[in-house]
Amino acid sequence: MSSEHPAPSAPLLESGLGRELAPYILEHADKSGFALLQHGPAALLARAVLADLATATLDVQYYIFESDLTGTLLTQRILDAADRGVRVRLLLDDNNLRGSEDGLKLLAAHDSIEIRVFNPYRQRRRWPRLFELAFNFRRLQRRMHNKIFVADGVTGIFGGRNIGDNYFEAHRDANFADFDVLVVGALIGDATASFESYWQHSLAVPIGRLTSTRPDRASLGLLRAALQERLAGVEGLEQRYERARLRMLEILEDPDEAMIWAEAEFIADAPEKLEAADPATSPVLDRLFGLWAGACREVLIESAYFVPRRRGADFIIAQAQRGVRTRLLTNSLAANDVSPVHVGYAKYRRRLRKAGIELYEFKRRVTRSREDMALTGGSSDASLHAKVAVFDRHVTWVGSFNLDPRSAELNTELAIVIHSEALSLQAAGMIERDLEPDRAWKIDLAPRVSGGSQIVWRGLREDRMVRLSREPDATRRQRAIVSVLKLIPGIEGLL
């Protein structure tokens, strides 16, 4: 376990947040403070508050940054920070920028804001991109999946969430259940160093080179007005934001009381992974396997996309055979927003269950709290997006890494490993809540009349326990996609 982190520089400790947190950072030396953020609205507003409190720098790195309600809110806060003189650097993967790049170009017209696009397509329109992807598949299928939001170089938020309504319980039709962690202290130096390596890489291209738009200061004024107008129509947003701001101030004014301090590791793939001739070894995957192999009693894990392949299945089974209780939650077919991924999971489901692995599948419809529905006004379909694990209730893993070949070999990823029993107990409780029958189907094997066994799903439906013998709530289209893709050789490596 590494305990050496780059110390925050003097200028950062003299920033607004730096001055506030310096006594705690210096007192705890190589430790960091942590607070888990599971509820979407709280995780969104925490980012907005950090942007408002920043006085020196904002370093923001994401795979997706939508121009919807949540993207509008954070864009407004980023612009406000730049108006106060905060140096803003926004690094975004290009895979999902279609339709929002002109707005980002407007934002980049600000003297204090710089935006770079990672691993960009040369073609900016949708249909020509398909041809470019076909002729440059090796590079363009590999994406920067890292997620970093760091303020003043001393505090930040990390986890599975991108920037978009779905990730913060703010979409009326479909939302992701996800997991973040607020961090203060030593670990931020490692995160900033990782961000810097991507920012300086040759694949990080200034957005001005990618569009023909030439914005000026007048355009910035129009952008401010448009952002304000859109947010003005969100009922109750100001009151909710003020509560979140007061909560964040409580945390930052006394992090000893509000946070758990512990030794931790920041692990990230190098950007060069996207340029490797062959799939690169991932330090993130290696560390995950190391933690799993070192578990003695129990592994609790949530992975939105779970494609173990033979090597991974053999490894998980071997751990179970030496007495490690393993409970794993992934998406059901109905809840999976990428139906083809289900192919690479379903083929190992029976074998894993026979070996004693406890498998759970997240439901498409789950019980949501009043707080979670506050931004949408109603319920919605759900999908698991979290990437979190707890080992022996002593070590917690949170990050962007899914248990699939794409995370292992094609995307760049990051993870935070927190060595704390207190925080691990909190995280384990959150995972176990997601395993309850109102939120997840439990996979079992039942004997067939004709011999052998069949997969069954057990869980609550309309307030009573049921046992189902086919993929719950899946549509005909989803079942058809899975049936066809099962026939394609080597499909797992692309999932």
Topology, pairings included?
Blueprint: H1 10-13, H2 16-28, E1 32-37, H3 40-53, E2 57-62, H4 69-83, E3 87-93, H5 101-107, E4 113-118, H6 126-135, H7 137-140, E5 148-151, E6 155-159, E7 174-177, E8 180-185, H8 187-199, E9 204-206, H9 217-232, H10 237-253, H11 255-258, E10 260-268, H12 283-294, E11 298-303, H13 309-321, E12 325-331, H14 341-354, E13 358-362, E14 381-384, E15 387-391, E16 395-399, H15 405-410, E17 414-419, H16 421-434, E18 440-447, E19 453-461, E20 464-468, H17 476-485
Parallel strand pairs: 2-3, 3-4, 7-14, 11-12, 12-13
Antiparallel strand pairs: 1-8, 1-10, 2-5, 4-9, 5-6, 6-8, 10-17, 11-15, 13-18, 15-16, 16-17, 18-19, 19-20
Helix pairs in contact: 3-4, 3-10, 4-9, 13-14
In words, what does this structure look like?
- This protein has 495 residues and is an alpha+beta fold.
- The protein has 2 domains: 10-260, Endonuclease Chain A (Endonuclease, Chain A), CATH 3.30.870.10; 269-494, Endonuclease Chain A (Endonuclease, Chain A), CATH 3.30.870.10.
- The chain is 38% helix and 23% strand.
- It has 17 helices and 20 strands.
- The strands form 2 sheets. The protein has an 18-stranded mixed beta sheet, sandwiched between helices.
- α13 (309-321) packs parallel to α14 (341-354).
- The longest helix is centred in the middle third of the chain and has 17 residues, at 237-253.
- It starts with 9 loop residues before the first helix and ends in a 10-residue tail after the last helix.
- Residues 372-378 have low confidence and may be disordered.
